[in-house]
Amino acid sequence: MSRPKLIWDIGTGYDFFLSLEVLHKPLLFGVRPAWTAGMRARAPVRHREILEVSQLLFHAPSYWVQSLPQPKDAATVLWHLGQIEPAQRLKKMASAHEKKNKPLMDMIQEVIESGKWSEPEKKLLCNYRRQGCGWEPKYTHKEAELVLQWYTRSEEFGERILEALKAYYEVFFAEEERRILPAIKQTVQIAKRKAEELPFDAFIEYLTQGVSISHFHQEINELVLAPSFWSAPLIKNFAISDHRELLVFGARPKHMSLVPGEKVPDMLIRSLKTLSDPTRLRILQHLSASCMTPAQLSRSLRLRPPTITHHLKALRLAGLIRVKKDHNFEANYYAARSDALTSLYERLDAFLKGTVQIQDPGDGAHHH
Questions:
Q1: Domain 253-368 class?
Q2: Statement: residue 66 has pLDDT above 60
Q3: What pLDDT digit, counting tens, does each position of 245-258 carry?
Q4: CATH 1.10.10.10 domain residues, the chain
């Protein structure tokens, strides 16, 4: 089957929501919690509270942002959100992510319409595995109860979330939007050239900084590619229709830091810190020899599965391993990215010499 048609969808509206996700879940993205706490504190307390709650109710609604008209910036997002009835805003944001989970969506709809919930709804929510970055825990009982309580107050939530997002835009994202847009555009231009040069599978692995996704060229006709400065190097994937998918990919240049004004690129710091751990070096040693599953690594290294998962997460955030995902977007095999290690040495050398390397999203990831 021929490669899918690639549709590039540039817009800072994706980062408008993804930046909030990073600020509220810094450890999932390898970001310093102290800095994110300072950024969250810029918003007034009333708005801060509802923004925090929103992270439990839904992920960054990239599927919905994809449906908006250009320029798909924060102003576009806020205007279109304002056109939705307050009572429907929560449903719109939540349903955008869980189209494949009909029981969950039916439950959300029922709770919103009835204004009440019971233990079966809470049990369903607690058993639901959230998408996100692949390492998020399930809801605790307390979190599930809080989520359900807000579902019963959807109109109040709808009013408050729009106010809070407007405040967030004013106190932080308006300035951030101006900073990141040129970098996103530059990254996309480089990526477009790579799309012409590389075989499709190699291009996807390059774009995602080490993720192999087997079903893309087998089952879909169109792949919408949306760059995100804030989520790098992680990716998000959504089915738009049976033959069309959205892939939000990390598009922060390697020479830039997520933290404005930071002189040392955060990817350089993260990679060096990751390599300073002896267990991670042993994992890389094994993955340099062959592809392995987490279970195989656990047996070989005699470490508990949660420990392996923790270290694999750190290695993935540093862009040092290759991940193979199956049809359900579950990671099943890992391998070392020797080319990424070479790139790291080059970036460290360039930094020490005071030269700036303009790096694209997956430098080195296209080697076979």
A1: mainly alpha
A2: yes
A3: 999 999 999 889 99
A4: 253-368
